[in-house]
Amino acid sequence: MEKTIQLGAVVLWSLMVSCFLFISYSRATSETIDEVYKKALKEKGVLNCYCSLAQINAVKIYPAFEKRFPGIRINHVDATSDKLAVRAITEARGGRVIADVLEFGIENIVQVHEQKLLLEKLPPEAAAYPANLKGSFWIANNLIFFVGAWNTNLVKKQDEPKSLDDFADPKWKGKLIAEPRDTEILIGLAHKHKSLEKARAILSKIAANNVEFHKGHSELAEFLVAGQGAACFTCYSHHYPSRITKGAPLGYFLTEGVGAIIGVAVLKKPPHPNTAWLFTRWAASEEGQKVYAMGGRTPAHPKVEPTEKVRPQLIYAVSADDVKQFPKYEKIWKEIFKLR
């Protein structure tokens, strides 16, 4: 009898705990963005964003967030994805978590997650996204497309490339620039040709054209503008419409491109947890995604279209499964171009 009573008490206690957790979770997910904003206002009014967003886009997007949520300022720590990931990991190992949110390539977000530094939680807005645009600790924010671009003063109309494969032509010898970390090109070509060996063969021919490498995609665009390179085969499509509008002698193709995901993730125990969650929810919402579109990015939200011509007709997307095998692809990429 006594054991039965004890068992009943345990079951009752378990049900009460489960009920409490369910109610707590329901309240957390049912909070409106403005309710989260009220909490965020109590956290010193700053968001530390380790974000690789190019300044040409950041100057349009982040002020819109600050205007939408007065009293909160974004401290944009700007660097390339790999450097931001290393910084976040190094700081955590030193006993300090400075970043609130990460906003950069998912291959580097996965790198930070492997160190058990990210919150395993998705905002309610994630329900609108397909499975391939979210994980247990990240949600896609915008999509990056790697395409070919060129300086129109240095490349004749009849010589303009139409595909990534075109850069394998010997006529490009000594004329190409690229980003040394863009392993995604190898992955995309492997998807296009349904063969890693074919992709390797094409890139080997491109490598034979003596590619000059520079870190930073914004820098690549400016090098093209200045005529310090005739063409680039690892350029971001969203970097070109605004520059062309301003009169830069540039061209780029949208016949095809390699698609990669820029995600958002929240650090565990960040300095400003509610502010981090506010930004994550806003950035994933239709409202926030429209701002990213107006800022020149390609929104990940299925219902929000880009405002500029940046989406290729054919997209060879880098999947979550590809990211898991990234070290393998990266090794091949470096071998092809003899990169360290």
Comma- or semicolon-separated keywords:
D-Maltodextrin-Binding Protein, domain 2; 340 residues; alpha/beta; 11 strands; single chain; 43% helix; 13 helices
In short:
With 340 residues, the protein is of the alpha/beta class. The protein has helices at 2-30, 33-40, 55-68, 81-93, 106-113, 184-193, 196-207, 217-226, 241-245, 273-284, 286-294, 320-324, 326-337; strands at residues 46-51, 73-78, 101-105, 139-151, 176-178, 212-213, 231-236, 250-252, 256-266, 298-299, 314-317.
Percent of residues in beta strands: 15-25%
In one word, what is the shape?
globular
The SS-based structural class is: alpha/beta
Mean pLDDT, to the nearest integer, reads 91
By CATH, the topology of the largest domain is D-Maltodextrin-Binding Protein, domain 2
Q: Which CATH C-level class of the largest domain is it?
A: Alpha Beta
Q: Helicity range of the residues? A: 40-55%
The major β-sheet equals:
11 strands, mixed
CATH homologous superfamily classification of the largest domain: Periplasmic binding protein-like II
Q: Which residues form runs of ≥5 with pLDDT under 50?
A: 2-28
Number of strands: 11
Q: What would you note in describing this structure?
A:
- It contains 13 helices and eleven strands.
- The protein has 340 residues and is of the alpha/beta class.
- The protein has two domains: 33-143 and 261-299, D-Maltodextrin-Binding Protein, domain 2 (3-Layer(aba) Sandwich); 144-259 and 313-337, Periplasmic binding protein-like II (D-Maltodextrin-Binding Protein, domain 2, 3-Layer(aba) Sandwich), CATH 3.40.190.10.
- Strand 1, helix 3 (55-68) and strand 2 (73-78) form a beta-alpha-beta unit.
- Helix 2 (33-40) packs antiparallel against helix 10, helix 3 (55-68) runs antiparallel to helix 11 and helix 10 crosses helix 11 (286-294).
- It is globular and about 60 Å long.
